[in-house]
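Ligand: zinc ion. Inputs:
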Amino acid sequence: MQTPLEILRTVFGFDSFIGRQAEVIDHVLAGSDALVLMPTGGGKSLCYQIPSILRPGMGLVVSPLIALMQDQVRGLVRNGVRAAYLNSALSGAESYEVERAMCSGGLDILFVAPERAVRPGFLDLLAQCRLALVAIDEAHCVSQWGHDFRPEYTQLDVFSQRFPDVPRLALTATADGPTKNDIIRHLGFDRARIFSTGYDRPNIRYHVQPKYDGQNQLLRFIKENHPDESGIVYRLSRKKVDQTAAWLSKKGIRALPYHAGMSADQRRANQERFMLEEKLVMVATIAFGMGVDKPNVRFVAHLEPPKSVEAYHQETGRAGRDSLPADAWMAFSLGDVITLRQMIFSGDAPQQRKIVELEKLNALLGMLDAPTCRRQMLLAYFGQELPAPCGNCDNCLNPPETFDGTIAAQKALSNIFRTGQGFGAGHLTDVLLGGKNERILSLGHDKVSTYGIGSEHTRKEWQSIYRQLAAQGLLDVDIEGFGVLKLNARSWEVLRSRQTVAFRKDQEGARGAASKKSRIAGLAEQDAVRTPEDETLFEALRALRLQIAGEENVPPYQIFPDRTLLEMVAYRPQLTEEFAQLFGVGRMKFERYSQRFLEAIGTHIRANGLPDDLPPMPQRREIDTKGGCNGDERTLEEQITETVRESVRLLRACHDPQQVAKERCLQESTIYSHACKGLAAGMLRLSDVVALSEDELQQIEEQFRQCGDAYLKPVYDALDGRYSYAVLGCIRACVRRKKD
Ligand code: ADP
Ligand code: ZN
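Predicted complex:
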C-alpha cells in the first residue's frame, strides 16, 4: 500500500503535510474517530481525502452546500481521484450513474448533502457498498449556537449506529466551547480524539484605520496594494453594497455586488463569476460567505466593523486560504459604532440576547482601538496565547504613538455634561473648537464653559477622541437618540481624575500592506515577481491558466494555485523533470498541463533571455524514477533532443556545466539534466561533467549501493550534503548504466 506521504506527493503535488494533517490521517487510517478543529485554510480536506483514497472502499463526505461539493469534486477529479457527488443538481440519469459507480467500487469519495445522507433508502444503498470512512464537513452546522444551523445535521449520528466499524471525522473552523460540545453530543463523538490547531492565520496581515472618506480610502488601499487581484469588501447594508460596487466600477476596479436583496439567480451568477474569474472584487453583506472557498482571495476589507470578534475572524479568514500573504483591512468611524449599537437595540431579540450582543460588539471595538499587537488580542479572545507580538499587523509594523489623553478626555466628557447630554460628536466638536454656527448660537452653547477650550486638537483628533472614548466604554452612546453621547459611571471616574486615559494617534494609509506580489515560502524573503519582466511572464501564465480553465469550465485555481505560477516565475523551469518539482504539480496535472506551460515559459525565455540571478530549482520529490534521469517517460533516444545534443557537445569540449550554462543562457540545473541524459546514453564520460577524485566517486557509488538509487535524498544525507543533487544525479545515471 502507498503511504499517505506518497499520495500527497504524487496525487496532490505537495511536499509535506501541514499542521496536524499527518496525525489525523494516521489516526483515521487506524480506524478511529477524529474531531478536527482547524482554521480556514488549515488543510482540513486532505484529512479525509487521503484516508478515503487509501482505505478500502469509498469515503462518504457530508457537506452542507452544493457549491462546496462541486468545487471539491472538480478539484479531486483534476488530480485523478475518483470523486462524485449526489445532490439535487443532478438529473435522474446522472444520479443513477453515480449510484452505479458507488455500488461497483468505482468511487474513492462521494459527497452528499445532509438531507440525503440520513434518508433510509440512501442508507440501505450504502450498506451494499464498502465504506472507508464518513466525514462530516462544516460540523458546526449541528449547533444551534452558530449562525449556520442545519437541523438535518442533528440526525447524522445515525452513521455510528448503522456503521459502527467505520471511522468518522467531524471538521470545522468555527468551534467555540458550546459549539464543540454540541458536535460531540449530537454527532456521538464522545470517543473521538480532538485535533485542534488553534485559530491563528499567520499569513493574514491585519490593519485597522479611522474612516474619514471610506470609499476613497478603500480605493487607495486596493490601488496601492492589490490592483489586479481578487478581494472581498464587506459593508453593513444592501444599499451601501450597491453604492460601493457601482462606485468602484466607475473608478476602474472590476466589482460586483452581493446581498440578500438580490434575486437568487443574480446572486448565484455573481458568486459564480467571482469563483471563475480573476481580478474581481466582491462587495457584499455578510450574506456572502459560506461556500466561498476561492483560495486566492488576496484581501478582505471592511468599511464598517462586523458585530463581534468571531465574525471578524471568520470574515477576514476568507483571505489567503492558499497560505500566501493576504491583507485584512478595515476603516471605521464613530458613526459606525453608533449604527451598530442602534441595530442591536432596534432588533426584536429578547433583552438578554441584546446585552450579550452588545458585549460582543464592545469586545471587538475595544480591540480595534487598542495600540498593541492585533493578533495577540484576537487569539487571546479565543483563549489562545501568542507569546510574542506577531510582527505581521499594523500595530507591530508601525507601532502607533499613544498619548496621555486624560486632560483631553476630561474636556470631551465635561463638554457632554455642560451641553446637557443631548448631542452627537459632530456638534460637541464644534463647541470645543469654538464654532460660530447657527446651531451653537441658537442653543446658547457659546456660553457654556467648555466653548472653545479645545483648540490644541484638530477636528479629526476630537472625532477620534470621542470614538476612542466610546470604544473604551468611557461614555455611552444613547441608542434611541440618534448618536447622542451620554456620561456613564466610568465617565465620572475620568472626570474626577480617578482614572487616566491613553489614546492612540490615528494613522492613515495601510503602510506595509502584504507585499504586492506574494512571497513564496522557502524562497527566502524574496518576491517571486520583482521586475517588469517577471510581471510579464506572470501575466502570460495567468492568461494561459485562465484560457485552460475556460476550456475545461472550471475556476482557474483548479488548474494550478497561484503559488505554482509564482514558482514558474521564480525558477523558470524548462524541462519536464523540473516542472514536476513545482508546488501543486501531481502526476495527473503534470501529464495534462506541463507541455503548455513549458511552452509558454520557453516562449518567454526566447524573447527575454534568462535573468542571471535565478535561484536553483529545489529538488523536492521524484515523480517517477524510470527512464533516464527521472520523471520522463520517453525512451532514452527520444530524450536526446537537439538541445541536449548541444549541451553534450559543449560539455565534451569544456567539461564545465557552469560554463556551458553561461554560454547557452540556460540554468545550470538544465545543463545538469542534459548531462544526465548524455551520461545515460553513453554520449558523455563522467569526467566531462564532474571533477571528482576516484576516491570520492567510489565513496558515492558505495552509498548508492547501500541506499538504493530510487531516491537521491538518502545518499545526499548520508554524505552530509557535500555533493549537490545535480552532481549526485549524474553519478546515479552512470551507476544505472553500469547496472544495465
Ligand atoms: P480548509 O478546508 O481547512 O479551509 P483546505 O483543505 O481547503 O482548507 O486547504 C486550504 C488550501 O491549502 C488548499 O488550497 C489546499 O490545496 C492547500 N493545502 C492543504 N494541505 C496542504 C499541504 N500539505 N501542502 C500544501 N498545501 C496544502
Ligand atoms: Zn502583531
